[in-house]
Write a structure and sequence with these properties.
InterPro entries: CheY-like_superfamily, Diguanylate_Cyclase, GGDEF_dom, Nucleotide_cyclase, Rev_trsase/Diguanyl_cyclase, Sig_transdc_resp-reg_receiver. Helices cover about 45% and strands about 20% of the residues. It is α/β, with parallel strands linked by helices.
């Protein structure tokens, strides 16, 4: 069975006729998890909690009709990619245009023709699945599976603005694998790729707080976004990353600082304001990383400690 027709998919049916909901549930029972609501307000509540892949939405409901429900969902960024199919007994060009103008991707006429319902739902679940897959590919590094630099740049801009509004601090950890060129020269690029993947996984497993994000920054460099930390927590995190990678015990006889793979980490911290910027935060982390390398590598360095 295709991934878009599985228990991973969820469909929300919204109609004030419970018998119709039961009928649709039977028609679509093998398409995924079925949710239902008999009114607009309840539909919005369930949609926000469950984030369905597809919504089948009745037009003629009271007091909140389908158009209003659809517009409410489309005004919320969290539902920008949610596929909505209207259901209506009023078939005609004006109704079709109104449905599409409200933000729906399709409409189904009542009374239902089960094969048509299944075909249209199948099509839009497939489109939703393919769109999500393409979006994921665009956001992730193909080798390590981490977020890529492009996604990180968007994330830090968004998080910077959010924390600026709330006057809360933002930390950055810039990570570099020590003497990685020497490693590739000695062990080969296949082993180098395996090591990059192993280090990436270790960094990801060590980064668990809500809002934290690990990305591959380029080559053998990684970057971590760390919202709402203080200096003590940031330093503990940097030390923990170094120890986590050392614990992998990956041999590196060509290293000048250890017999195993190690990392250097540059740390920076600031409370976002109009006088600073994400690029300044990254510049400070880069300077701290440079100092960590100058001090012998296999260590972390906090920017404020620089002379």
């Amino acid at each position: 069975m295709p991934a878009y027709l599985s228990k991973q998919s969820s469909i929300l049916i919204v109609d004030d006729d419970i018998n119709l909901i039961h009928m649709l549930s039977q028609i679509l029972k093998d398409f995924g998890r079925i949710l239902f609501a008999t009114g607009g307000e309840k539909a919005l509540e369930i949609a926000k909690e469950q984030k369905p892949d597809l919504i089948l939405l009745d037009v003629e409901m009271a007091p909140m009709d389908g158009y209003e429900v659809c517009r409410s969902l489309k005004h919320d960024d969290a539902f920008g990619n949610c596929a909505i199919i209207f259901m209506t007994a009023n078939v005609g060009m004006e109704v079709e245009v109104a449905c599409l103008d409200a933000g729906a991707v399709d409409f189904i006429a009542k009374p239902f023709n089960p094969p048509v319902v299944r075909a249209r739902v199948r099509t839009h679940l497939r489109l939703k699945h393919n769109s999500a897959a393409l979006e994921s590919l665009a956001q992730h590094d193909a080798m390590t599976g981490l977020y890529n630099r492009g996604y990180f740049n968007q994330a830090i801009e968004s998080e910077y603005r959010r924390l600026q509004r709330h006057h809360l601090p933002l930390g950055i950890a810039l990570v570099d694998i020590d003497y990685f060129k020497n490693y590739n020269d000695s062990y080969g690029h296949i082993a180098g790729d395996a090591t990059l993947i192993a280090v990436a996984k270790a960094l990801e497993l060590a980064t668990k707080r809500p809002g934290e994000l690990v990305a591959r920054y380029g080559g053998e460099e990684f970057v971590v976004l760390l919202p709402q930390v203080d200096k003590s927590i940031l330093l503990q995190y940097g030390l923990m990353l170094c120890e986590t990678v050392r614990a992998l015990q990956i041999p590196h006889t060509a290293s000048r600082c250890s017999q195993h793979i190690t990392i250097s980490v540059g740390l920076s911290l600031m409370t976002p304001s109009q006088d600073t910027s994400p690029s300044k935060l990254l510049e400070q982390a880069d300077r701290a990383l440079y100092q960590a390398k100058n001090n012998g590598r296999n260590r972390c360095q906090f920017f404020a400690e620089l002379a």
